[in-house]
Amino acid sequence: MKKNLIIKILSLGIGLAAGIVLVAKVCFELSFDRNFKDADRIYKIMTGFTQSGQYDDFGQVSGAIAPGMMREVPGVEYGTRVTFLFGSDRYRFVDQGDDSFIKGELVLADTCFFKVFGHEVIAGDPAKALAKEMTAMVSRSFAEKIGGIQECIGKTIYNEEYPDYKFTVEGVFEDFPDNCSLDYDILLSMETYSKESTENWLGNDRYKGFVKLAEGVDPNTLRPAIRKMQENNQDMELIKSAGVEIEYFLKPFAKVHTSDPIIKNTITILSIVAVLLLVISLMNYVLITISAVVKRSKEVGVRKCYGAETPDIYSMLSKEAARDMGLAVLFAVILVTCGKGLIMNILGVEFETLLVPQSIIAIAVTIVILYVISVVAPARLYSRIPIAAAFRNYTESSKKWKLGLLGVQFFINMALVVMLVFVSMQYRKALYGEVGYDYENLLYLSLYNQTAQSSSERIKNELERLPEVEGVEFGYELPMSGSSGNNVYIPGMTEELFNFADQYSSTKGYNSLLGIPYVEGRAPEAEGEVAVDQNFAEKICQIGNWKDGAVGKTINLTGHGDGMSMYGDPFVICGVYKNYLLGTQAGRDYRPSARFYGDLSGDYWMKECLIRVNNADRQTIDKIQKIIDGIFPESTNKEVRSYAADLRGSYDDKLKMRNTIILGCILSLIVALIGLIGYIRDESNRRSKEMAIRKINGATTNEIIGLFIKDISRIAIISAILADVLAWYASRLWLQQFSEKISLSPWVFIAGNIVVLLIITGAVVLNCLRIAKANPVESLKNE
User: Fold this and answer.
1) CB-facing half-sphere around the CA of 56: CA atoms within 13 A
2) Three-state SS for 96?
3) Fewer CB atoms inside 10 Å of the end CB: C or N, the chain?
4) What is the per-residue pLDDT across 330-377, written as a single tens digit (0 to 9) for each?
5) Is the dihedral of CA 768, 770, 774, 779 positive or negative?
6) Read out DSSP for 537-597?
7) Element (H, E) at 776
């Protein structure tokens, strides 16, 4: 009995530990942005647009939209908007006394920010602090880093990349919780920014807009008023003539995070793994409890002789289950406490952070459900034991229920193993797949402001003197960083054709350094020239009906030139380069792209420095870093970084998912093997007389082992078919996150099933050897 108790506690505790952590993670994700006061009345403003018959929406708006809704749309109590300003997240305060920096996330915010979100203000008045130029409010944790909540008031801080751009702290707000999308540390007054942007009604969609509705207002009823606001403030005819339709609608802020396809799929996959781990542990517990029915039959029979009825049997097992569940929960807590580092590494967040109210409730409900099932399932069988069992041996001849429980465990293990194989294959494909450019032995350096960029020529000259450096080029964007967008027109036409990923200016050798060849023409060499990718060229040629290709043709592009025309400025296409991956495999920008002329001696904003080396080892990086430090002696964040390492690091969240499933596979296999060993041991005791007679009649060891393998293999094959269906569904969800996908090959399903079957068969053989080699005479004596 003690051995059974230990096995039950181990298997149930392992499953509970893993299941509780994953349930907490799922509930944590589901609880995002639900902690604000009147959270059900807070909405994010979404932009919907139709172009060339295709509809899409995104979560950013022009600067005037949110305050415009507050003024002109009945039912909207408050409206606010925020936007990012700096590329760097490092700050210092005046008279700091050392050269260290303080990290923080800054956004521009207006005076209605706290009215919309109802977030706690500790010091200062947002109506004043966010109403003046160059004033800011900071979070509690940021305030404590610069002296304290009261002490920080009046201090002047600045972004390390813009030392002349100083602003004063005039208020402190409580830190935003971890399950919140607004992870801001500094709110800089919106009055600091240009009114041409903050009060603009069309274009420059850089702002995230939010509104708070009056109680009882249905956001769908506001659509006519929102449309009227557009008609009053936007040139609808001009928008229509451009071939575009624009609308605004409200989306519950509490649903924005969970409606993201990647988050939604992650929640689904984690939920599947959590349920599988909890079920396999529960099935194992029930299997061990029910397996003891023969040994405990006399006890139950005697109890019935003394008047025990079904409720008494349930009560007996309830107490035992409560003891077992309590010990299992204690063991699970110990495992979670000892595995905090592992949890942080796999899930990217500390376990204590996951314990939001929703998570605690879900964990409690899970434990209660497991407890109820662990009582009811065995109690139904125990209550059927007859009174006669007190006077004679009681045998339970049917083994179908045991095989059924084992089948569930096999199903879970096979599903997890197949899922793991597909997740690992896709992760590897994303990590080492083709991106269309050469990023091995490539380093980069980010120069966020014009002061730093004024040293670009010096950087290029000094680095190219090094024997390790093969080339240095500059550009506005890195391929892995994605792009902002601008629009394309054909001269003489008012219809907006499409939006392209704007890579802005780059030096002439930028594409060559990256290994991106030109299939036609050349790189831009003067103002008024633009190079485009193959997708851009094919699209514009199809629209313009240009049979002789795009090179040499003139197009109008917005966001460049003097910017005076609504329909953009003219540029001549000088070259067409090969398509390459913009963004990452998990966040690909599918738009056509374009690059413009840039020169280090001119006034071009090219903030990214690419450095091609012959070997990107630590020694080379340190050597280049030393030169950069010499060029910028007062700056601490001009870090030379490995492009390959950062590109692969962008898939860290995918790595964490893979590791989660690996851990789930290991734990589920451990639990399943515990259950399998228990089943074989129980069956060998129950069938000891049969085995003895078979041996006396000439049965070999292999034949005895074959009896067990035959029963188990039959249920395992059925489990494999069902497991493959679940694995296919979960793997398909996972693959939706990537632009380049592996195929769900049937051979992977077969291989995964075979691996689990081999492990099962090995466990059966090892545990049956003792039984098969036992002296049949001793077995018959025991009977």
Assistant:
1) 9
2) coil
3) N
4) 998 998 888 888 888 777 778 888 888 888 898 889 888 888 888 887
5) negative
6) HHHHHHHHT-TT-STT-EEEETTSTT---TT-EEEEEEEEEPP---EETTEE--S-EEEEE
7) helix 776-782
Whole-model pTM over 0.85: no
pLDDT surpassing 60 at residue 777: no
Residue type, 710: K
Q: What radius of gyration, in Å, describes the C-alpha atoms of the chain?
A: 33
Distance of CA 235 to CAs 62, 204, 222, 228, 245, Å?
14, 15, 21, 12, 12
Section 685-708 average pLDDT: 68
User: Mean pLDDT across the stretch 129-150?
Assistant: 91
Among residues 281, 272, 232, the alpha carbon closest in space to that of 405 is found at 281
- Determine which of 87-96, 135-144, 155-164, 187-196 has the lowest per-residue pLDDT on average: 87-96
Lowest mean pLDDT, pick from 10-19, 211-220, 573-582, 695-704: 695-704
Residue located via tokens 């659509």: 223
Distance CA 723, CA 665 (A): 13
pLDDT at residue 605 is higher than 90 = no
User: What are the helix (H) ranges across 202-348?
Assistant: 223-233, 236-241, 253-256, 261-291, 297-305, 310-338, 340-347
Q: What is the mean pLDDT of residues 640-650?
A: 89
Question: What 3-state class would DSSP assign to 150?
Answer: coil
Buried b (16+ CB within 10 A) or exposed e, 413-436: bbbbbbbbbbbebbbebbeeeebb
Phi, psi (deg, nearest 5) at residue 448? -75, -30
Q: How is residue 430 written in tokens?
A: 């994303």
**Residue 512, pLDDT score:** 92
Which range among 230-234, 429-433, 668-672 has the greatest average pLDDT? 230-234
Could you tell me the CA-to-CA distances from 416 to 26, 430, 734 in Å, in that order?
18, 21, 13
CA distances for 516 relative to 218, 327, 547, 642, 647, angstroms:
52, 61, 25, 19, 17
CA–CA separation, 595 and 571 (whole Å): 11
All structural domains of the chain with their residue ranges: 86-192, 442-649
Task: Please tell me the distance from the alpha carbon of residue 52 to that of residue 47, in angstroms, as a whole number.
Answer: 17
